[in-house]
Structures are given as C-alpha cells and as structure tokens.
Amino acid sequence: MNGRRAAVAGLAAAFVTVAPGAAQADGAKLYATHCSVCHQAGGAGLAGVYPRLAGRGPDLARKPAGRRLMVSAGLYGMAGRLEVDGKPIMGVMPGFAQLPDAEVAEVLSYVAGLGGKPAPPFKPAEVAAVRASGRLSPTAVNALARAAPGR
Ligand code: HEC
C-alpha cells in the first residue's frame, strides 16, 4: 500500500472508530451492500414490488411487535402477500442470518432512522434474543408483518 492510500485508509478507520455517528455510518454501508438493491437508496422501495422502508422503518421500530418483525425479517427473510401503500406485493426477501448480531443491529438501526423521526437504534442483544427464540420460515415472518401495527 502506498503512503497516500495508507493515510486515506487510516483516516477512514479513524472516522469509523471515533465519529459519534459511527453505527449509522456502518449501517448505511451495510444497507448499501445488502438491502438497497431491492429497497432502493434511502428506503424508497418500488411500488408493488419492494416495500418502502422510509417512514415505515421508524414506525415499526417504535413498537415491540414491529421491532421483532424487523429483526426476524433481517435474519430469516420474508415471503408472501403484503399490502404496502395500497398496492399488493407478492414478494420474497432473502434472510441475512449469516451476518453477526452487531451488523444486523447496525443495518436495522439505519432503517429505523429512514425518514421521519428516527426510532431508537437496535442493540446486538435484541438481535441475539430473536435468534435464540428459534428460526422462523419466511412465510411465518410475513404473518408477523401482516399482524404488525400500521399496515
Ligand atoms: C432481493 C430483494 C430484497 C433484499 C436484498 C432485501 N429485501 Fe427486505 N423485503 C423484500 C421484499 C420483497 C419484502 C416483502 C416480502 C413479502 O412480501 O413477504 C421485504 C420486506 C422487508 C421488511 C418488512 C417491511 C414491511 O413493511 O413489513 C423489512 C423491515 C425489510 N425487508 C428489511 C430489509 C433489510 C434491512 C435488508 C438488508 C439487510 C433487506 N430487507 C434486503 C425484498 C428484499
């Protein structure tokens, strides 16, 4: 690595470790890597295909049932019929159970801050608790979403 690249990498590492919004910065990166291909930049979604997360993420993350749904969808994915913004979606989302609890928490914290008033961030322990309560099928996660408040 040449000196300039090393310096830039060092700066980036310093930013990630000391910046107050570090978790959000990581969450944004994780979102761009794993989620935005479907849910689109900023959680805009795609009407009738991929649910909008902007506004919906914070709404869900303010209630225990919604938080549980978000962690379950993040870990195990989701499949089935949904209605979002008055349009039916018959979707399949992959799960991300291969990611460590901390990364699932970071990306969901980012989603919880998309649009509107940000909801409290997710803690790795919250993800661990859902993981420990047993694996759900993507269809079972869809049932949680249909039961979640606000849809
Ligand atoms: C391959 C496309 C795809 C990817 C990648 C994807 N999702 Fe999804 N997501 C979907 C679809 C489709 C649904 C709705 C599934 C259904 O119809 O049951 C969904 C549903 C959700 C929901 C529930 C929304 C609601 O209104 O109930 C959340 C939360 C969510 N995704 C978050 C994420 C996060 C966070 C990531 C990245 C870690 C991610 N998704 C990656 C396609 C995707």
Task: Give a verbal description of the structure.
The protein is mainly α and 151 residues long. It has one domain (22-147): Cytochrome Bc1 Complex, Chain D, domain 2, CATH 1.10.760. Helix content is 54%, strand content 9%. It contains eight helices and two strands. It has helices at 3-18, 22-34, 36-39, 56-61, 64-76, 101-111, 124-132, 138-147; strands spanning 78-84, 87-93. Strand 1 and strand 2 (87-93) form a beta hairpin. Heme C binds next to helix 3, helix 5, strand 1, strand 2 and helix 6.
Largest sheet data? 2 strands, antiparallel
Uncertain segments are: 10-20
Helix content: 40-55%
Tally of alpha and pi helices: 8
- Spatially, the strands of the biggest sheet line up as 1-2
Query: Would you state the CATH class?
Result: Mainly Alpha
State which percent range the strand residues make up: 5-15%
Bound molecules: heme C
Protein topology:
Layout: H1 3-18, H2 22-34, H3 36-39, H4 56-61, H5 64-76, E1 78-84, E2 87-93, H6 101-111, H7 124-132, H8 138-147
Antiparallel strand pairs: 1-2
Helix pairs in contact: 1-2, 2-6, 5-7, 5-8, 6-7
Bound molecules: heme C.
